[in-house]
Design a protein that fits this description.
The protein is an alpha/beta fold. The chain has two domains: 189 residues, FAD/NAD(P)-binding domain (3-Layer(bba) Sandwich); 212 residues, D-Amino Acid Oxidase, Chain A, domain 2. It is 26% helix and 23% strand. It contains ten helices and 21 strands. The strands form four sheets. The chain has a nine-stranded mixed beta sheet with strand order 6-7-8-5-16-17-18-15-19, with helices on both faces. The chain has a six-stranded mixed beta sheet with strand order 10-3-2-14-21-20. Helix 2 crosses helix 9.
Length: 460
């Protein structure tokens, strides 16, 4: 057994743990930090995302919008000073509907987002006095619009988004949104942190000594043997293993896991334009089967479920540079809580279901029904709280902290979440939205009452 010391030990080298280390070392001057993870950095769930970001979040309250706005501020600054090494863009999200009764919902979402700080909503209804619609640039992030554009003018929809189904009656285009390369962002942060002295230890946290109600020593199991690390602060940043890591210090973290997968497929016909924003269909749907296909599916108990109504939310974006043929498709239609297992199971039906669901929004994809491109499927676990808000802040054990339950927004929130975590560890000035993400919020009777009528979780 060997002994070591660090001012801060972080359990987990995913995007949350790396962001916390980066902020501690590069912003707050805490350089004696050890990141402990038995896997390579960013390899468990941080590399399974669609890598998108948005400041488009519902209430209650404005805490999520403010956290995301701050996170995007940091992303912008890091992109600027790194020469945009992680390829940040600001193409926006496009939520579209073919149901006239849902137009009011899009409008209400735009008004709510504006009220919470996401930027004003501009209307495009085909009137002479409408503001001109400004298409999003396919690259870059500086100088772009914020807020959103609600488009109910059919002519404008067909002009700007001719690949959408003719059934589309409205769309709303939130603008402070887009995507980036998660691996390159995470490695940029890690390199910057290591240059300041942060150490990366490939090992598994075996136990944490919390005698007297305070973190004292972290025991890590590495290939070389056992390492006892005395420390003044311990950060739980264990991604989908957050509950287990919390249990090691005697803290129950109120989270559960959902499995989410994505499909990567080639689009050699360029049905989805390479300059497209993230595209989301907001209507539930039945998949477009032929009569013969439907009859065959109906004949077997194992396939009958494919005839059911599927939920809203199939979404997709182009992946890679202009000459890449790849499109990413996501559609989570299984949302039951599960226990994380690795490697994660693969839903064999997902590629065809996702392709057919997206074809409802983008009919040109029907060209692939008879001979679909060979897909690549991967996925990871969203670790969530009941209301789908993160856990960031101190824990009941003295000098123990948590950054987790980042659900499907871990990459987009990581910059702001890491900064917020660092303010707790260093006891620095914190934004006034910080209490919204503390574990102790669940002890507040008013908050528990609010949970009963929470409304939308904000998850796509």
């Amino acid at each position: 057994m060997t002994e070591s010391h660090a001012d801060v030990v972080i359990c987990g080298a995913g995007i949350a743990g790396i962001s916390a280390a980066y902020q501690l070392a590069c912003t707050y001057g805490v350089t004696d930090v050890i990141l402990v993870d038995e896997r390579p950095p960013l390899s468990l769930t941080s590399d399974k995302s669609t890598e998108c970001y948005r400041n488009w979040w519902p209430g209650p309250g404005d805490a999520m919008v403010r956290l995301m706005n701050r996170s995007i501020d940091i992303l912008d600054a890091d992109a600027e000073r790194s020469g945009n090494v992680f390829h940040l863009n600001r193409r926006g999200y496009l939520f579209a509907t073919g149901d006239p009764s849902r137009v009011a919902q899009l409008e209400a979402a735009g008004e709510e987002a504006a009220a919470l700080g996401a930027g004003r909503m501009r209307r495009h209804e085909g009137r002479p006095d409408d503001l001109a619609y400004e298409p999003a640039a396919s690259t870059g992030f500086a100088g772009h619009l914020d807020g959103s554009d609600l488009i109910t003018d059919g002519g404008l929809l067909r002009k700007e988004f001719p690949y959408l189904t003719e059934r589309t009656v409205a769309a709303i285009h939130p603008r402070r949104c887009g995507w980036f390369s998660a691996q390159q962002l995470g490695m940029f942060w890690l390199q910057q942190a290591r240059a300041k002295g942060v150490r990366l230890l490939q090992a598994r946290v075996d136990s944490v000594d919390t005698r007297g109600g305070r973190v004292r020593t972290v025991r890590a199991l590495a290939k070389e043997g056992t390492i006892d690390i005395t420390t003044g602060a311990y950060v739980v940043a264990a991604g989908p293993m957050l509950r287990e890591a919390g249990a090691q210090i005697g803290v129950e973290l109120p989270t559960f896991a959902e499995y989410h997968a994505k499909v990567a497929m080639a689009d050699p016909l360029r049905v989805v334009p390479r300059h497209a924003p993230l595209l989301i269909w907001t209507d539930p749907q039945h998949l477009p089967w032929t009569k013969a296909e439907a009859a065959e599916l109906e004949s077997s108990e194992s396939t009958r479920w494919l005839l059911k109504e599927f939920p809203a939310g199939v979404h997709a974006r182009p992946e890679g540079p202009d000459d890449s043929p790849i499109v990413l498709i996501l559609w989570t239609y299984h949302t039951e809580p599960v226990e994380p297992v690795f490697p994660a199971p693969v839903d064999a039906a997902l590629p065809e279901v996702a392709l057919r669901g997206l074809a409802t929004m983008i009919p040109g994809l029907q060209a692939y029904f008879s001979r679909p491109p060979r897909p690549i499927v991967d996925g990871g676990y969203y670790l969530k709280t009941r209301e789908n808000r993160p856990l960031i802040g101190p824990l009941p054990v003295e000098r123990a902290f948590v950054i987790g339950a980042l659900s499907g927004f871990g990459l987009m929130a990581a910059a702001g979440a890491g900064e917020l975590l660092a303010t707790w560890v260093t006891d620095s000035q914190r934004p006034d939205y910080a209490p919204a993400f503390r574990l102790e919020r669940y002890a507040d009777p008013d908050y528990r009452k609010l949970l009963e009528t929470w409304g939308s979780s904000g998850q796509l």
